[in-house]
C-alpha cells in the first residue's frame, strides 16, 4: 500500500501534473501531514525521524519552487534566494 502511494506521488511530480500547478498549496499541506505522521509513528514503522524530516522538507521545497504560484516548472531567482537563506541557517543551528 505504501509503495503504491509513493509511486503515485512521485509519478505526479515527474509528470508535471496540471493538478499540481493548480493546487500546489494542497500538495504542500499533504506532504507536511504525511511527513508529520511519519515522525509521530517513527517507532512503529521503524523509520529515522531525521530522514523523514529531510524528505518532507525536500518535497515541500520542490513543490514550492516548481509548482507554487504559477511557476513554470523551474525555480525562480526569488525561490533560489529564499532557499539559500534557509540553507545558510542550517549550519548555524548544527554548529552553535
Keywords for this structure?
single chain; 96 residues; mainly alpha; 6 helices; 81% helix; 0% strand
Kindly describe this structure.
This protein has 96 residues and is mainly alpha-helical. The chain is 81% helix and 0% strand. It contains six helices and no strands. Helix 3 packs antiparallel against helix 5.
Topology:
Blueprint: H1 2-15, H2 18-22, H3 24-40, H4 42-45, H5 49-67, H6 77-95
Could you give the distance between the termini? 41 Å
CA radius of gyration? 15 Å
Uncertain segments of ≥5 residues (pLDDT<50)? Answer: none
Dominant shape: flat
Summarize the structure.
This protein is an all-alpha fold and 96 residues long. It has helices spanning 2-15, 18-22, 24-40, 42-45, 49-67, 77-95.
Amino acid at each position: 500500500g505504501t509503495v503504491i502511494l509513493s509511486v503515485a506521488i512521485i509519478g505526479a511530480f515527474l509528470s508535471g501534473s496540471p493538478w499540481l500547478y493548480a493546487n500546489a498549496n494542497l500538495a504542500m499541506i499533504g506532504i507536511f501531514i504525511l511527513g508529520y505522521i511519519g515522525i509521530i509513528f517513527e517507532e512503529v514503522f521503524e523509520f529515522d525521524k531525521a530522514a523523514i524530516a529531510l524528505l518532507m522538507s525536500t518535497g515541500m521545497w520542490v513543490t514550492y519552487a516548481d509548482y507554487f504560484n504559477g511557476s513554470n516548472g523551474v525555480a525562480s531567482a526569488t525561490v533560489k534566494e529564499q532557499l539559500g537563506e534557509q540553507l545558510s541557517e542550517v549550519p548555524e543551528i548544527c554548529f552553535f
